[in-house]
Amino acid sequence: MSTPTPTSSLSGEDKQHLAMELADTKARLHHVRQEKTEQLMDTRHEADQLVLKFQKVKQENIKLAADARSACAYCDELDTLREKANDMERLEMELQCCRVKLHDLEFYKDRMEELREYFN
Description:
Layout: H1 12-119
């Protein structure tokens, strides 16, 4: 005794109609799978491009951070040099005053020697 299959009671026309629907459904499924595969490939490509862009931006960020540290170091060095320049100006003025005083002292020394000779 054989068990009846669900399609055994269907007419040939119904079976043909169901076969066409099945073929159509399989074709649509195949088409959807292709679209999804293409979308997945596109999305992966976009993700790869974003990763590359991220790596590039990250490298640029590292370089900019190094440049910023260098700039800070140059600013500190510039401040130090400005302080030294100010000290140098002050010391040059002080030196000029000392030269004037030395000149005056030499004058008074020479004058004293003249007076000693005169009075001796």
